[in-house]
Amino acid sequence: MFLPAPKGLRSAKILDERLEMLTTIPSVQPLREWASDLEQRADGRVVPRFDPAEAGVDARVLFVLEAPGPMANALSGNARPGSGFISVDNNDATAANLWLARDAAALHDHFLAWNIVPWYLGPASVKPNAAELAEGSAALRELMQLLPVLEVVVLSGRFAQRGWRKFVDPSGRLPVSVVDTWHPGPQSMAQPGKRDALVADLRAVAGTLSRR
């Protein structure tokens, strides 16, 4: 399900619908259970849930970002509460930029978003360290075991790319195609050419899927 505009989860009605979907959509149930188990192992760290409007275990594209932002964390204590989901529909600029890029690339289906570090670290200025990348990468390998038709992993930004090559697949032998692209954060997207490059990368991914 792809909403007609970005930042859809600022609507309480849409958020309530998404929370209901989290308990009823079959394709997300294995991921919901896994994320809940991961949070129990995460020593009190908050692990946002997968967006049930996305492909779930039927994902052919896994888009890997850096770490959940405040608007993915329903327990952040901020004046604007987060949704509790990793979602392109979140009420923040990064999610909106990714929504716009996906829409421009017609990459509406078969998509799942996650992070190289799956728990909330803090504001966007807090970057993952090597230990966090290693721990998050181990979780990412677990997640990939739940995605039987996964074909493409899109690594968004230098932390996702670093974690993948150092900890997830240092030998380059995992049976997926890997695409490096820019992070959709506002600082990156403000730089000349990067927004167009992100769209071009996602359009190429969409084209690859359509040929299979």
What does this structure look like?
The protein has 212 residues and is of the alpha/beta class. It is built from seven helices and six strands, in the order ααβββαβαβαβαα. It is globular, with a radius of gyration of 16 Å. The strands form two sheets. Strands 4-2-5-6 form a four-stranded parallel sheet. It has one domain: Uracil-DNA Glycosylase, subunit E (3-Layer(aba) Sandwich). Helices cover 40% and strands 11% of the residues.
Mean model confidence by pLDDT: 95
CATH topology: Uracil-DNA Glycosylase, subunit E
Q: State the name of the first-level CATH class.
A: Alpha Beta
Spatial order of the strands in the main sheet?
Answer: 4-2-5-6
User: What share of the residues does DSSP label as strand, in percent?
Assistant: 5-15%
Number of strands: 6
Integer tally of domains: 1
Question: Whole-Å distance between the termini?
Answer: 22 Å
The secondary-structure element order is HHEEEHEHEHEHH
Instruction: Tell me the name of the CATH homologous superfamily.
Output: Uracil-DNA glycosylase-like domain
Which structural class do the helices and strands define? alpha/beta
Low-confidence stretches: none
Q: Rg from C-alpha positions?
A: 16 Å
What oligomeric arrangement do these chains adopt?
A: single chain
